[in-house]
Amino acid sequence: MALQQQIDRTAARPVGKPKLGKLARREEREFYLFISLWIIGFIAFDAGPILASFVISFTNWSMMTPPNWTGLQNYQRLIADPLFYTAMWNSLYFGVGSVGLGLIVSFLLALLLNQKVLGISIFRTIFYLPSVVSGIAVAILWIMILHQDFGLINTVLSWFGVKGPGWLVQPQWAKPALILMSLWGAGGSMVIYLAGLQSVPQHLYEAASIDGAGPWMKFWNVTVPMMSPVIFYNLIVGFIASLQGFVLVLIMTNGGPANATLMFGLYIYRVAFQFFQMGYASALAWVLLVVIMIITALQFLGAKYWVFYEGETAR
Amino acid sequence: MSANLQQRTVVTAPARRQPLFGMRHQRLAQRVIVYALLLALSVLFILPFMWMVSTSLKSSEDVFTYPPSFFPTTFLWQNYPRGWTILPFNTFLINSLIVTFANVIGNLISCSLVAFGFARLRARGRDILFLALLATLMIPREVTIVPRFLLFSQMGLVNTLWPLILPAWFGYAFFIFLLRQFFMTIPTELDDAARIDGASSLRIFFEIILPLSKPALATVAIFAFIGNWSNLLDPLIYIRSQDLYTLALGLNLFRGQNFTQFNLLMAVSIITLIPVLTVFFLSQRLFVQGVTLTGMGGR
Q1: Domain residues of chain B, as ranges?
Q2: CB contact set of A250 (below 8 Å; sequence gap of 6+)
Q3: How close B54 gets to chain A, by Cα (Å)?
Q4: Is A56 on the interface with B (CB under 8 A)?
Q5: B88-294 falls under which CATH superfamily?
């Protein structure tokens, strides 16, 4: 009946020519209905907040008193704030270290698992499992593992006569300790690399063999180029994620010792929810957003020189 | 999906040539090295878990003997009930279950609807919107936590479970992307045939797409479950009263009060990990498929 009504309506409409057919218009309407939940969410939880935080970053809002417009004051404060630089440095150090080493470790694990060995699924499970557990239980576990006197790592080191450092107590060891911890979760990207390795066409390796290439040459001239888009993707996503992960740090060190693990996210959290300086926190957040955009753009620019997409003609 | 994967492995299985005489030994040696490495690395990856279990069974004296021993002198199973009852962990468990299931269901409903739109319906502006969707994955959480907090506090929802639940009901880009990728592998001929028979989009969604997408939906449910179960940041920001604490928050409180009682801490930590580990072991295949389908390793 509804359809009949619609037909009547269109029939009654005067000559004017519609841009889209009736069915197409209905489909378009349906599309927007189907995605309407996300559009609301996008406005309320993503786009809206981003714009709002930009506006708030020019105020001195503290939640208690109504906000005052302070212009660029927050950004001026930021430039003179030594903790801003400390936090930025810590995050970049951790990001580069954990993503770089994580790439190497997970890629090597994937290569090992790709050796067509028996029991591959058992090993895959073992390597993958740590990346599934996360959050506070893991933080507590690693506090203990990294403990100076009673921790697992220093216990093992002592068997070899090495006196391990106070991982989370000495400023110069705190960031390496966190990077080490992040490597435990390398299984997540390992699974992705493994899937990538398994889909590299075998005929490329055969062709390379015929040309007399050894395993090393095959690795650099077939495997790496074929995997480069996957690696590239993981670098981008991994780096953004590494700049965000401050919950573990919040629990394990709360930024200490001597601000050695004060990550950028943690600093924002502290300014916003411990000092209630929403304006300054928003300014910091916006700087972070811009830094991430710049780094991502640089990665895309650099990708031209090493990422190989199948089907692209050789230059 | 699984057929697809299987096919792939079959196709890429190497066409081995007959091993030459000397090569057989080389192969064997290579195999031995690979296994040795795999075993050594497995020990490294498992050791932290073993350490966790062994500590949870130690007495307080055992935890702080020097040099530490790997095994407890006596196995104190009562550490588990003891730790669990020091704080109202049963309440925390119920809150965690409420929040997690509300998130899983919200994500399943909202994300599958949106993904269907993006995968199956043509409209002007669709591609731009899809790019916007993907772009939200790149936004660091820190940029939105402050305004989101202000939003929820304007709504008077701070110190309720709502801020932990509501966002999931409005789609999450990663899951929408995952489901869309999956929906696109379902032949459109099925939709067309149904449309000729007069089926509406909603009917196609419910009666064709959803039943064929069970593996992808299960993957989303699992990712949502695990992601929310261990979420600490949002409860930390929004929850004040202890009767609304989630497990993660309760564990954090417990740690603050008993930071030297590693045995009890580990016991409670292990209990909180059990649901995650169970889900993982029951659904490992879906997990790996979900990761490879999107090329993303969780969050």
Answers
A1: 88-294
A2: A266, A269, B236
A3: 11
A4: yes
A5: MetI-like (1.10.3720.10)
pTM above 0.90, yes or no: no
CB contact under 8 A, B201 and A53: no
Segment A66-116, tens digit of pLDDT: 888 988 999 999 999 999 999 999 999 999 999 999 999 999 999 998 887
Enter the ipTM.
0.81
Give the pair of three-digit tokens for residue B23: 């090569």
Among A104, A127, A226, which Cα is nearest to B49's?
Answer: A127
Domains in chain A (CATH in brackets) are: 19-74 (no CATH), 82-306 (1.10.3720.10)
User: B41: which DSSP letter?
Assistant: H
DSSP type of residue A59: B
Identify from B10, B45, B155 which residue to disrupt to test chain A contact, counting A C-beta atoms within 10 A and taking the largest count.
Answer: B45
- Chain A hits for B269, CB-CB cut-off 8 Å, are 136-137, 140-141
Contact A140 B251 (CB under 8 A): yes
Tokens of B12: 């890429």
Residues in chain A within 8 Å Cβ distance of B280: 129, 132
What are the pLDDT digits (tens) for B238-295?
Answer: 999 999 999 999 999 998 887 778 889 999 999 999 999 998 888 877 777 766 666 5
